Amino acid sequence: MMATAPPQPQDLTSPESKDAGVHKDEMTVFQVENRLFRVHRHFLAENSLVFSSMFSLPRTTATTGDSTAEAEGTSDANPIHLPGVTELEFETLLRYFYKSMHDGFSLPQPSWIALLSIAHHYEFLNVRERAIREIYGPAAQQPQDHMLLISVAEKYDVSPQHLIPSLVSLVTRPQPLSEGEVASYSALTVSRIAHAREDFVRRTVNPPPLQPGWLPAVPNGPSWKEGVARDVVCKIWQVQNDDESPRPSRRVFSF
């Protein structure tokens, strides 16, 4: 049996969007898992390359015997199905479109990840960038779950640039990767982490001899070691190192 229909999108629409005439936009019915959603197609078509292409196609009706079925998405009886999308993902997407313009809009981390998932699969490019900022940026939930962040990045093609703090944490910690972490990461990521840990130990335990006129910037200090780890991570993952923390050595000039 179909679950009780959710509140109509009008219930979520802001006064600003009413003034803009959004309610004049055509509604489309979607089925996500066992739930029906009636949505203003404007939000989907304007923000998603996939939905824009979908709505640009001519509507077709199915004829069976003497009867002609309604076009897909025009009624509860014939919704557009979105396989692979969860209720949480689609509901979060609607909440984002109807509420994100309000001051103080926020979501818990699981909802941002759900938003990233549907944005990734349906090419909501601006939504995807916002979700990445919220998950990986300075305002992200603390403390960070590094295993989760790396797994999410691999699944949704997030740039390794956003993973530098998580990777540095894994490289510098004394404990090896757990079985759960190894199972969560791709073979390539596990190999790179192992390589980075070895390189970090080699460069901090047995640093190369300093050339004449060079002195350690912060010998064996936390900032020095973190700087080494960032250098190692950025080299192995081939991303730019924008950090300005002290590096292993500095030049001493004589005049």
From TrEMBL:
Pfam family of the protein (one): BTB
UniProt cross-references to PROSITE patterns, sorted A to Z: BTB
InterPro entries given in the database record: BTB/POZ_dom, SKP1/BTB/POZ_sf
Segments passing through the bilayer: none
Alphabetized CDD domains for the sequence: BTB_POZ_ZBTB_KLHL-like
Region (Disordered): 1-23, 61-80
Domain BTB: 26-98
Protein name (Swiss-Prot/TrEMBL): BTB domain-containing protein
Species whose genome carries this gene: Lactarius akahatsu
